[in-house]
Amino acid sequence: IILSIHPQESTRKNKDGSHLAETANPMSATDEEMDDQIKSATADDMEDLIESAEEASDKKKLLDIISTCSHHRHQESPEDWDVPSEASLDSFYRVIKGSRSDGGDSILELPMNTRSKLMHSLQAWREEEAIVEVALGCIAAVGSQAEENFDETVDGIDVELIVNIMQTYEDESAIQEQACLAIKGLAEASEGLKARLLEVEGMGEELKAAKDRITNERNKKYVGQAAAALGLEL
User: Fold this and answer.
1) Residue 122 and residue 125: Cα distance in Å, rounded?
2) Less CB within 10 Å around the terminal CB: N or C of the chain?
3) Any idea what DSSP says for residue 104?
4) 121 CB contacts (<8 Å, ≥6 apart)?
5) pLDDT (0 to 100) of residue 63
6) How far is CA 135 from the centre of its chain?
7) CA angle centred on 147, ends 191 and 108, rounded to 5°
8) Distances in whole angstroms, Cα of residue 112 to Cα of each of 98, 107, 118
9) Distance CA 164, CA 153 (A)
10) What pairs with residue 110 in β-bridges?
């Protein structure tokens, strides 16, 4: 379950004590097709745009909003964009889960760049615990669902980021759970992603550690699911 709480200012660091690195501008060339209303919107405008997109179950529009919020993370006054960023991810999560539960459009392809934009959001807001949790939840929720032209965007997905997040938030049980489910989904979505996940240094050790970090006994099974998707024996 993804909880929406206002993210607090974070001083998270890597395990070596260094501060988490700033990331590059995540806006992609495909955003040229983005709705002008979204591109020109202020942070305060986003609430109505998110609400209308969720009501219409418009995954592409929600992803464009998510991408715009990630872009503004690297501009002036990024603190204005944390709330719409989390809200748009929450809405996307509900739309994905809703389409799966009612048997709606879950069999249809996800919009192009779905996973790429979700991963960019995770990267851009990696110092904000609440946004990290819901971004991972979204990646987990799409699972292995087909994505439009995925072969054109899959190379841009930084799978190592998820392990880095697990290490940074090693005391946050919910993030460990969602990270395991995200790994499972990515591994099942593409043989190429599976191979790259297996190449991440310390992947097996991190999954083993996650089993101890997850406090809900019932949810420790997510570790085994991630390992099984990777073909690992822990």
Assistant:
1) 5
2) N
3) S
4) 26, 66, 67, 69, 70, 85, 89, 131, 135
5) 97
6) 3
7) 125
8) 20, 15, 11
9) 21
10) 147
Check if the beta carbon of residue 150 is closer than 8 Å to that of residue 197.
no
The pTM of the full predicted model, rounded to 2 decimals, is: 0.84
Q: What are phi and psi of 86, to 5 degrees?
A: -65, -40
Residue with tokens 């097709």: 33
In the block, residue with structure tokens 């983005």: 34
Element (H or E) spanning 162, and its range?
helix 160-168
Please, are residues 123 and 23 in contact by the beta-carbon 8 Å criterion? yes
Give the separation between CA 172 and CA 150, rounded to whole angstroms: 31
Question: Contact, 210 vs 180, CB < 8 A?
Answer: yes
> What are the backbone angles phi and psi of residue 177, rounded to the nearest 5°?
-60, -50
User: Each residue of 77-111: b (16+ CB within 10 Å) or e?
Assistant: ebeebbbbbbbbbbbbbbbbeebbeeeeebeeebb
For 75-113, what is each residue's pLDDT tens digit? 766 678 999 999 999 999 999 999 865 655 545 689 999
